Structures are given as structure tokens and as C-alpha cells.
């Protein structure tokens, strides 16, 4: 079980609570091996995310937060979501490279009911694996092969609340950067795409979530550690089967992170575990300790069971359980205004 340096972290975070309005998250079960260390109360940071209280999430500290929260929780915590029209079946549309001002071709899912309202929607940005890279035009359909786009195409997409899904296609490897990572290590590649979607669709800017598998998960890690948190737009992130970074871990201190990996995916398991261990042990520590979920006996492909939720209840109990939908976990968090 991964543990943080609790006493030092608590002292520092309690100081932050008094001076910065950041929830302390101090309890005796912190780190990725416990329940995530998320307070039952609503908490917010100056430039990070706010946790929704009254959710069905795993609980952490039972103490109340002294942060200047947005007051969400109870009957009002999910009002911006529950008021959205039910998704009766949306459209999953290709936008080839060159047909928009985005740098990439992409697929976009608009929930049913989107055109019948003026409300803004949560956005999840999905980053594909290395084998799905392509020219954004004739090869754009590769994006549909795995992950959330595959679930949408199969008719299985049914999160608790409607979400817009944007799935950009990164160009084929060109040996110009880190070809193992979506974005090749440049966070502006992802940031620019997010801002394109924000500019062209009704996006709830407090509810933008980032996830990716393998090569795309590497891109998620790059974005978390290389993009300034205050301008990242991200409320929560979930890299899956990815290579955990070992530097700039203090960049996303207020962004909830949930890492998924297979126990037999040796390199990604070791580096992801190292990331979560060091990330949670920082002083000052993260507002929301990163969660680390491991599927026992599984290799690289753990994304299907994570995204389609068939992996619920099957994770190694030594680490964080997969005991709630990834999407419900995302909905717990929104960026502070």
C-alpha cells in the first residue's frame, strides 16, 4: 500500500488551509493505497478543482473544509449537470483536418438534446494510442478503434450525466519529437485543441476532463506536469496504461488524478506507481492525493475494462479499488472559478 509522508504533509497543508484556503485532506489513510483522501466536504483551491460534496464517491477525511468553496453539494452540487436534457442518443461526427481551424482532425460526440437547449455541457477529451495516429482525414476513423470513441460507436456510451466527447487524432510519427507521447511532449498541442472545442461548442468551462490510453495516457501525464495548472482548463485527469513521469510533479497539485494500470504491464506499472508515490509524498502535498488502481494479472490493455466499466470491482485490493464509475469520479470535480 502506497503511503504519503503524512505528518509533514498534514502540517504543511494545515498551514495552507489557514493561509490559502486549500482543503488540508489530512487523515490517516492518505496516499494511493487508501480511499483517495478526498474530503466529504466541498473544497476548492485558488486555481484548481472543487470537490462536489453529497456525491456517491469514496470518502476520505470526515473533517469539514475551511476552504472558500463554491457552496456546491447536497441538492445543488450537481445542478449544472442534473438540469441538462437527458441524452436520448447523440451524434458522433468526424471533423477532418482542414475542415475546422483546429490543428487536428477529430471526432466529436454531441449528446442528444444538445440542440434543444442553450446550456453548457461537461467535456471529456480522449487521447488515443500510438496505433491510432494518422493524417486526420482518410485515416481519422482510426480514432474509433479503442477507448471512449469505440464505446460510443457500439452504442454503449451512457454516463450518469450527458457529456461532450472530443477525440483528436495526432499526426503520424515524424521523428521530430517524443513519438511515444500524444503531443510529443508539447502541452500546447493539447491546450490548443481544448481551447478550439471551448470556442466552438457550449462547454462548461468548470467541467473539462482529460483521459487517454497508452500513448494518449503519456500525453495526459505530459499535460499535467508541463502545462501550468492555472491555465490547463482541466478539472480532473485519468491516464491509463501509461508511463509515469518523474519530474515536475508539483505542477498539478490541485488537479485530481486517477491512474490505472495492469500489474503485468511492467514498465508502466513501475513508473506509474513511482509517480503516484512521489506525487502524494510531496511537501506541500496535493490537494487530492492521486489514486492508483491496478488490475492483477493484466497486461497493457486495461483501458477497455476501465472505460466500459466492466473492470469495476476487479482491481487489486492492495491499491485503490475501482469501486465507482470513472465518469462519476470525474463529475465530483469542477474547477474553481
Tell me, what is the CATH class? Answer: Alpha Beta
**What does the main sheet amount to?**
6 strands, mixed
Distance between the termini: 35 Å
Note the beta-strand portion: 15-25%
What coarse outline follows from CA principal-axis ratios? globular
Describe this structure in a few short sentences.
This protein has helices at residues 6-20, 79-82, 147-153, 187-200, 215-226, 266-280, 303-307, 326-331; strands at residues 49-51, 91-95, 106-110, 121-127, 164-168, 203-213, 236-240, 258-262, 291-295, 333-335. By secondary structure, it is an alpha/beta fold.
What report would you give on this structure?
β8, α6 (about 265-280) and β9 form a beta-alpha-beta unit. Mean pLDDT is about 80; it is low at about 1-45 and about 55-75. α4 crosses α5 (about 215-225). This protein has a single domain (about 90-335), classed as Alpha/Beta hydrolase fold, catalytic domain (Rossmann fold). By secondary structure, it is α/β, with parallel strands linked by helices. It contains eight helices and ten strands. The strands form three sheets. It has a six-stranded mixed sheet with strand order 2-3-5-4-6-7, sandwiched between helices. Helices cover about 25% and strands about 15% of the residues.
Secondary-structure topology with pairs:
Layout: H1 6-20, E1 49-51, H2 79-82, E2 91-95, E3 106-110, E4 121-127, H3 147-153, E5 164-168, H4 187-200, E6 203-213, H5 215-226, E7 236-240, E8 258-262, H6 266-280, E9 291-295, H7 303-307, H8 326-331, E10 333-335
Parallel strand pairs: 4-5, 4-6, 6-7, 8-9
Antiparallel strand pairs: 1-10, 2-3, 3-5
Amino acid at each position: 500500500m502506497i503511503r504519503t509522508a503524512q505528518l509533514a504533509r498534514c502540517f504543511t497543508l494545515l498551514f495552507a488551509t489557514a493561509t490559502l484556503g486549500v482543503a488540508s485532506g489530512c487523515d490517516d489513510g492518505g496516499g494511493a493505497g487508501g480511499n483517495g483522501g478526498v474530503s466529504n466536504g466541498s473544497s476548492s483551491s485558488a486555481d484548481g478543482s472543487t470537490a462536489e460534496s453529497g456525491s456517491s464517491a469514496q470518502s476520505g477525511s470526515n473533517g469539514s473544509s475551511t476552504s472558500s468553496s463554491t457552496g456546491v453539494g447536497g441538492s445543488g452540487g450537481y445542478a449544472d449537470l442534473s438540469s441538462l436534457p437527458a441524452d436520448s442518443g447523440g451524434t458522433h461526427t468526424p471533423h477532418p483536418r482542414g475542415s475546422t481551424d483546429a490543428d487536428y482532425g477529430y471526432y466529436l460526440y454531441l449528446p442528444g438534446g444538445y440542440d434543444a437547449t442553450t446550456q453548457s455541457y461537461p467535456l471529456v477529451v480522449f487521447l488515443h494510442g500510438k496505433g491510432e495516429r494518422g493524417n486526420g482525414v482518410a485515416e481519422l476513423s482510426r480514432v474509433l478503434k479503442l477507448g471512449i470513441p469505440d464505446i460510443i460507436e457500439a452504442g454503449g456510451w451512457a454516463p450518469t450525466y450527458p457529456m461532450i466527447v472530443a477525440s483528436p487524432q495526432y499526426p503520424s510519427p515524424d521523428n521530430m519529437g517524443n513519438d511515444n507521447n500524444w503531443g510529443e511532449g508539447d502541452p500546447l498541442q493539447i491546450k490548443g485543441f481544448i481551447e478550439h472545442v471551448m470556442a466552438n461548442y457550449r462547454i462548461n468551462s468548470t467541467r473539462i476532463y482529460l483521459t487517454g490510453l497508452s500513448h494518449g495516457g503519456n500525453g495526459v501525464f505530459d499535460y499535467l506536469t508541463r502545462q501550468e495548472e492555472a491555465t490547463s482548463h482541466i478539472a480532473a485527469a485519468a491516464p491509463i496504461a501509461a508511463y509515469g513521469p518523474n519530474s515536475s510533479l508539483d505542477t498539478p497539485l490541485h488537479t485530481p488524478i486517477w491512474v490505472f494500470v495492469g500489474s503485468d504491464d511492467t514498465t508502466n506499472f513501475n513508473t506509474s506507481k513511482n509517480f503516484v508515490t512521489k506525487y502524494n509524498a510531496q511537501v506541500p502535498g496535493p490537494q487530492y492525493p492521486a489514486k492508483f488502481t491496478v488490475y492483477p494479472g493484466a497486461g497493457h490493455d486495461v483501458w477497455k475494462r476501465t472505460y466500459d466499466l466492466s473492470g469495476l470491482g476487479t482491481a487489486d485490493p492492495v491499491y485503490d479499488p475501482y469501486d465507482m464509475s470513472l465518469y462519476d469520479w470525474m463529475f465530483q470535480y469542477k474547477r474553481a472559478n
